[in-house]
């Protein structure tokens, strides 16, 4: 399994009432839905922790954090937790155009490209080391019909009482057969105060102004804190570019070239929109169009250096009028 998402240990502070419901959950499958980066994966790990914890539970029924199972989970080495995700790359090494969780994720014999190290079916044949095997499916909307059918058989009669935690942004994009066999829980953004406490506990604080900006950017999404360093860097880059665009043509082109080298598709677009948030609606609309054009060009494998230059020039136009 991959390392534990940072706020998993703070999940009780962020999603206490949800953990109250999941702690005593006696069914076979949970479906967690909610916006991107709201902390669904961290919550799924917190549920896995709850169902394997042998210590004294907290006030929301959250795992103790110190028993052997909790320590294994925090170390990213829990033998009873399997995370299943779509693979981002194809066998040819190119970024996959369309994300999918293939049948090979469930059945070892069908994993032709050997994309998955551990397969759900084989994973569930083994008895739990602690209390309960937990299969977390991150991206349940990417389960095709064949994969979903194979999973449904396991969900209906889970070996050794295994628990499935399915994660999706939008419930409606999950196959109805999976929805109907799962208990559904909506994960809402946390309050700014709760997220601020989680940030303080995480040791990632960097001074009042910087923290305030990070929290404003996060807007209650705990998953943003996991990438605090990348987000702060992206916000700085976004301000640098925006400042350079107003300074002049050469500064704008230089800043665009620098941004190209640091470009992080997960954070820079959102950071740019955040930095432009205080501008006029007309300016924002033109800047958004320039950004969308850049993203489309990059996805189409256009010349990146040229695409960033075009972006910088479009931004100068976007911010040049009706200031
Ligand atoms: Zn524990």
From TrEMBL:
Domain of life: Bacteria
Protein name, entry field: DNA polymerase III, delta prime subunit
Transmembrane annotation, as ranges: none
Species of provenance: Deinococcus reticulitermitis
GO BP term, pick one: DNA-templated DNA replication
Alphabetized InterPro entries for the sequence: DNA_Rep/Repair_Clamp_Loader (IPR050238), P-loop_NTPase (IPR027417)
């Amino acid at each position: 399994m991959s390392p534990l998402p940072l706020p998993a240990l703070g999940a009780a502070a962020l999603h206490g009432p949800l953990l109250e419901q999941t702690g005593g959950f006696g069914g076979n499958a949970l479906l967690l839905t909610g916006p991107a980066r709201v902390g669904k994966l961290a919550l799924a790990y917190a549920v896995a922790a709850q169902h394997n914890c042998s210590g004294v539970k907290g006030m929301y029924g959250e795992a103790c954090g110190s028993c052997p199972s909790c320590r294994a989970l925090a170390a990213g080495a829990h033998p009873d937790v399997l995370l299943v995700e779509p693979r981002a790359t194809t066998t040819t090494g190119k970024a996959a155009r369309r994300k999918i969780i293939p049948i090979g994720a469930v059945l070892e014999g069908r994993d032709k490209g050997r994309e998955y190290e551990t397969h759900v079916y084989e994973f569930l044949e083994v008895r739990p080391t602690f209390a309960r095997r937990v299969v977390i499916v991150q991206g349940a909307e990417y389960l095709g019909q064949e994969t979903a059918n194979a999973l449904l058989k396991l969900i209906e009669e889970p070996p050794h009482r295994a628990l499935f935690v399915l994660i999706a942004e939008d419930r409606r994009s999950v196959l109805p057969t999976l929805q109907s066999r799962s208990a559904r829980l909506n994960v809402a953004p946390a309050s700014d105060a709760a997220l601020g406490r989680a940030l303080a506990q995480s040791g990632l604080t960097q001074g009042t102004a910087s923290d305030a900006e990070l929290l404003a950017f996060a807007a209650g999404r705990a998953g943003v804190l996991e990438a605090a360093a990348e987000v702060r860097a992206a916000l700085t880059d976004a301000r640098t570019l925006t400042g350079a665009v107003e300074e002049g043509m050469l500064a704008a082109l230089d800043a665009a070239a620098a941004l190209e080298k640091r470009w992080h598709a997960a954070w820079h677009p959102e950071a740019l929109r955040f930095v432009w948030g205080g501008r006029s609606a007309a300016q924002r609309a033109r800047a958004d169009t320039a950004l969308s054009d850049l993203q489309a060009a990059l996805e189409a494998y256009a010349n990146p250096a040229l695409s960033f230059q075009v972006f910088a020039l479009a931004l100068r136009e976007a911010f040049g009028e009706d200031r």
